[in-house]
Write the structure tokens for this entry.
Amino acid sequence: MKFTSAAVLTIVAVGYASQAVVAFAPTAPTFNNKHSTTSTSLNGIILTKTTGRSSLDPTVIDRYNDLPYPEDVILAEYVWVDADGTTRSKTRTLPAAKAESIKTLPKWNFDGSSTGQAPGDDSEVILKPCRIFKDPFRPRQDGIHNILVMCETYTPAGEPLESNTRAIAAKAFEGNEDEEVWFGMEQEYTLFNMDEKTPLGWPQNGFPNRPQGPYYCSVGPENSFGRSISDALYKAALYAGITISGTNGEVMPGQQEYQVGPCVGIDAGDQLMMSRYILQRVCEDFQVYCTLHPKPIVDGDWNGAGMHTNVSTKKMREKNHGLDVIKQAIYKLGANHKDHIAIYGEDNELRLTGKFETASMESFSYGVANRGASIRIGRDTWENGYGYFEDRRPSSNCDPYLVTGKIMSTIMGPEAPEIAPLDKEEA
């Protein structure tokens, strides 16, 4: 797991009027005039379709942020997953005492016909709170916290919606609490200018003049693009109470990664999904488009984006036979490879080609310190004889509830035939 210590930077509103049209990407020739302005800012400057900075005047925003909240109420942002697997939210005012626990938070509802989750003639969908986080976008100075609330979606009759994959995952974890399964998820994402087709650091309608190599974990304005967004996400997630354990720039310019975990059981899905919500909110502030597509650039030799998932049960962490338990789990995953691929994310076939640090989705493999395998066992785990394994197949847009739940149900399933490890030379 690529877990590191937390860095601390302050989230600030960037983009004064004189900077409003300055993009993160380097200046490049304009080939057409189709990238017209689409939105306005509070200071009267028009945001262009290639902006990488928000032009909202921080002095205007601070005028409202500095207003005190009433002591006896909090703002609760109810967040849920829609029919497309992305997050949505809305806010309500609650007595401060209601925010003390999930049990005291009330249920709510929304118009499911507007999110693809209910028909128009019976559109009410029930929001059931399941996890509380502190709200990093509405901080307070009075010792009380506004909150973000991760919710499940149900019909008025109490049945989980088809899109409520958390309910599916919960069944996989139910009865296996003694396993104390840990998940560490590496969420990759790609940042674009607001034209939604030019990654940060790329010239408009063109490609970088250097291939992959200098951008991974890089420094310098010619190599690193979007660091301010990554750092803002980092601190916002820490403030919220998410177990974010590190960040790094990725192999393709404009691509970033953060890691969430270790988290236990169903909480892994809750934390990862809320982190995605926070990521999108941060990108709102910076006026940068963020995609979780696993292969946002298909032309040329560029890495895709995944959500590598690290897994460790209590028995895998035991010194005497942990490695044997890990191998048995890997054999089970291999026997169910196609079932896992089916729920590991849309358009994953564009990424899992056997190139660019991936294994082909057509076959299953595992290896030690081998990033060309489906499953990787870390060198330390192999030498120590206990630890964790990394499933490298999930895509960046995968459903973390489905992924963690499926892994849990598979490794708790029947024994499977032994699989020989993949040598590095074969990758």
In short: The two ends are 21 Å apart (CA to CA).
